[in-house]
Amino acid sequence: MVIKKMNMEIYIFKLKQELGAKAAAHGAEIIHKAISKNGVANIIVATGESQFEMLDELVCQDLDWSKVNAFHLDEYIGISDEHPASFRKYLKERFVDKIELKEFHYVSGDKDPYEECRRLGEIIGRHPIDLAFVGIGENGHLAFNDPPADFETEKAYLVVDLDEQCRRQQLGEGWFSSLDEVPKRAISMSIKQILKSNAIICVTPDLRKAEAVKNVVKGNVTPDAPASILQKHGQTSLYLDTASARLIT
């Protein structure tokens, strides 16, 4: 099923495997066009349980990955890249090690976080983003921009506090064994930086995301529902399953 709402195209599938395959193929088409036009493509890659199927399919796409620079959305502060919940570990195992990228720019959460934000901001400023793969959190967050999100900062990356609902989501997905283990701060790509992407593919399956999806599609644009800002982006494609779409269909 395809729905057009405001500036978004919404694709709904019964199976997460099909959702992942279609989102990956769509992303590969955008990346291929960017390489053909500019000789290189710059992309953003998301993490989390919602991205499993899409990433499995994306690494199988027929692309010249040696012409792709990739950036990572966010990382917890205070954990190493060997921690089971590290997004660096996640992306290395599920994406980076399976292809041969031109370059991948990790967010390091175990260095000075403010210096890391500055470093990454300088790099991404030299790489106009062709495509961002993102997801929506149970609390409506985009990257780790929890509500109320900062819609105004011009910084590309910033240090953020994680709210309890976000931390409980990470626990519920099995990344940590207790809530106390979930970090309370992270480095996140900012809302404005995400919106600079020429195209956005937002992959958000599962029933637990249904309320957040409804707020993105039918609600007002507000920092209290951070991903609602996607309504303002002209080239967003929202990939859902029937569970996450149940409140908008």
SSE topology:
Blueprint: E1 2-5, E2 8-13, H1 16-38, E3 41-45, H2 52-58, E4 68-72, E5 74-76, H3 87-94, E6 103-105, H4 113-124, E7 131-134, E8 157-161, H5 164-172, E9 185-189, H6 191-195, E10 199-203, H7 210-218, E11 236-241
Low-confidence stretches: none
* Domain module count: 1
Strand order of the largest sheet: 1-2-11-10-7-3-4-6
Q: How would a textbook summarize the main sheet? A: 8 strands, mixed
Straight-line N-to-C gap: 10 Å
Approximately what portion of the residues adopt beta-strand conformation? 15-25%
User: How many helical elements?
Assistant: 7
Highest-level CATH class:
Alpha Beta
H-E string: EEHEHEEHEHEEHEHEHE
**CATH topology annotation:** Rossmann fold
User: On the 0-100 scale, what is the average pLDDT?
Assistant: 95
What spatial form do the alpha-carbon principal axes imply? globular
Q: How much helical structure, as a percent, in the residues?
A: 25-40%
Q: What structural class do helix, strand and pairing data support?
A: alpha/beta
Measured on Cα atoms, how large is the radius of gyration? 17 Å
CATH architecture: 3-Layer(aba) Sandwich
Number of strands: 11
Protein model, in words:
The chain is an alpha/beta fold. It has a single domain (2-241), classed as Rossmann fold (3-Layer(aba) Sandwich). Helices cover 29% and strands 20% of the residues. It has seven helices and eleven strands. It has helices spanning 16-38, 52-58, 87-94, 113-124, 164-172, 191-195, 210-218, and strands at 2-5, 8-13, 41-45, 68-72, 74-76, 103-105, 131-134, 157-161, 185-189, 199-203, 236-241. The strands form two sheets. It has an eight-stranded mixed beta sheet, with helices on one face. A three-stranded antiparallel beta sheet has the order 5-9-8. β3, α2 (52-58) and β4 form a beta-alpha-beta unit. α1 (16-38) packs across α2 (52-58). The longest helix is centred in the N-terminal third of the chain and has 23 residues, at 16-38. The protein starts with a strand and ends in an 8-residue tail after the last strand. The mean pLDDT is 95.
